[in-house]
Each structure stands twice: as C-alpha cells, then as structure tokens.
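Q: what does this look like with magnesium ion bound?
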Amino acid sequence: MNTGKEHHPSKKSTPAVESKGALLEIQDLHTHFHTPEGVVRALSGVDLRLNEGRTLGIVGESGCGKTVLALTILRLIPQPPGRIAKGKIFFQGVDLLSLDDKGIREIRGNKISMIFQEPMTSLNPVFTIGSQIEEVIALHQPHLATTRRQARDVTVQMLDMVGISSPGKRIDDYPHQLSGGMCQRIMIAMALACKPSLMIADEPTTALDVTTQAQILSLMKDLKDETGTSIILVTHDLGVVANSCDEVAVMYTGHVVEYAGIESIFASPLHPYTKGLMRSIPTIEARKRGEILHTIPGNVPMGKDVPQGCTFNNRCEEVMDICRKEYPPVFVPAEGHSVRCWRYRR
Ligand SMILES: Nc1ncnc2c1ncn2[C@@H]1O[C@H](COP(=O)(O)OP(=O)(O)OP(=O)(O)O)[C@@H](O)[C@H]1O
Ligand code: SF4
Ligand SMILES: [Mg+2]
C-alpha cells in the first residue's frame, strides 16, 4: 500500500489556474476512514482550484472519492470513522478547516449549499415544499420574508424560476406528490434561496431519466449565468461534464489525476485513466461500426488493495517500471492542463 510519502513526491499543487482570485482553493487534502479492515485513504492529497462563476466537474468511477471530497469541503464527514487528516480548504480566503463549529455552520447553507443525488431523502416528507423553502428564505434572506405573505410570494417566484408549473398551487404540495425531477428542482430552489457563492451538486441528475436530466442541467447552467454562483458538479458521466462544465478534475483513488479546461481534456486526454473513461462513453458511430464498448479492466482498488507506486498501475495499459515504485508528481505538459502520470516526465 502507498504511504503518504509515496503519494506526494512533489509539493507542487495542481498548477492549472492562478490561485489569485480563486473562490475555492484546496491544498494537499487528506481524508481517511478508520475501518476494522484498515485505513481507507479516501482523499490522498487533493489540490484543486475553482474561480468565481465557473463550473468544475469532478469525475471518476465509483469509490474514487468524489462524494468524500464534497463532504470534506463542507466538513460533513462522519467522525469517526472519518478524519480530515491534513490539508487546507481556502474559501474566499478563509481556511474552512480552521473554523469552529459555529463558523462552519454559517458557511454551510449561507455561502456554500449542497444538492444531493436523492432529492426525496433530502426533503422532509411531513412538510409542504413551500414551507420548507420559506424556512430557508427566513433563515438566510430574512429581509425577503418580513411577512408570511411576502415569504409565500418569494417562494412562488423561486418555484417559477426553477421551472415548476402552476407554482401557486404546487407550493402546498408535499414531496411525495411530486416527481423525482420536480423534487430536484425544489432542491435547487432551496439551494439558491441561500444565495450561495458556491453550489456543490453531487450526482444531481443520476436518479432521473435522460430528458429530465438534460432539463435540470440546463436549468443549473441558466441559473449559474444569472446569479454568478460557482458550481462543483460531481458526476460519473463524462457526457454531463462535456455539456455543463468549464473545467474538469478526474479523480482516482483519492487523487486528482488530471485537471484541465473542458476543451483541452476532450481534445487530448492525457492520463491513461481519463483515456479509458473516454473510450467507455457509448457512441452511435461506434455502435454502427459494430464495436464493443470499451471498459477499463478491473475495479477501483481500496484500502490494502491499493497498489504501491501509481495507484492505477494494475489497470494501466501503458505501465512502466517506475510506475510500480513511485507515485507520479504533477506534470504540466500543456498550459492549464496537468496530469499525474510518469508518461509526461520530461
Ligand atoms: N463512512 C465511511 N466509512 C468507510 N469508508 C468510507 C465511508 N465513506 C466513504 N468511504 C470510502 O471512501 C472512498 C471514497 O468514497 P466516495 O463515496 O467518495 O466515492 P464516490 O467517488 O463518491 O463514489 P460513487 O460514484 O459511488 O458515489 C470509498 O473507498 C469508500 O468506501
Ligand atoms: S504513471 Fe504509469 S501506471 Fe500510472 S497512469 Fe501513468 S503510465 Fe499508467
Ligand atoms: Mg458519490
């Protein structure tokens, strides 16, 4: 198994974006889970930056650490068994890991809001959706809701904004009376009611059908353009990334293995893992040619199964000797495009 040292031969952080003016800057972040089977290094030295008004996609197979990253930013990791072992998370210049409980509560919901995959589990079944949104407005934007009438009007406006038809009627519905897509729109309305600077959406459309998925993503994009909110979009779907994101970070075994602007990564993916993910996207052309869909052999290793050296070496088609010994540092083969793979050593 890799030691922390092997994972971080270089102190260099992902150098793709100027840190100046970054809304969020994550440095050498490690989150571990202490389980009876041993320590799971869910995040193993993540460096990332997000500038204002941008959408950053986080992609990777199941178990790569995407949700743990989102939860670590908001300090929602269950402790124990989890522990944020090391690192810094600067948000608007303040290290979130240095805040006390009151400080982080003020950030959560106020400045950073989160949307989860299963909207039904995030909404309270015993209250109407209207009352739940009104509560968020009263808490985060009380000046908009000085009277009950005003709170209701603002809520109707928000429902309208997220594309709920007949919002004046729907406001009195309970969550079970709405479809999954509508519930996700409600979650977006609630997330926006906080007027956040950053919205973290963890697989917000995975549970929805393709048409609703496209509608929700386009809604998020429009709202982002209107409000200037930055977004971190966690998804296992590269198609979603292509349509929605400005930058993308590819995660594997708790590391960001490739980071680039959206055009750059699709035009020239560098990391063998990213290339594998790209080849796994089904296309009509490939189907017409009778090609069998490519899959990356094996599974994401966890805990004691994580190989020494590059953690992808047991699945990589381009593996070399050094890959079995040392974890690769960050290389920057093109401006704004960084990769952790020995193939790019100069
Ligand atoms: N509460 C926990 N206890 C122990 N291990 C955990 C816990 N939560 C997450 N992990 C481990 O951390 C690693 C990263 O998990 P994470 O949920 O972030 O993956 P993910 O990339 O979001 O996957 P998915 O696409 O399936 O949502 C996994 O190995 C997972 O088993
Ligand atoms: S460092 Fe080696 S094993 Fe890892 S992705 Fe690059 S070529 Fe493959
Ligand atoms: Mg997840």
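The first strand starts at residue 22 and ends at 35. Residues 271-272, 310, 312-313, 316, 318-320, 323, 328, 341-343 surround iron/sulfur cluster (ligand 2) (CB under 6 Å).
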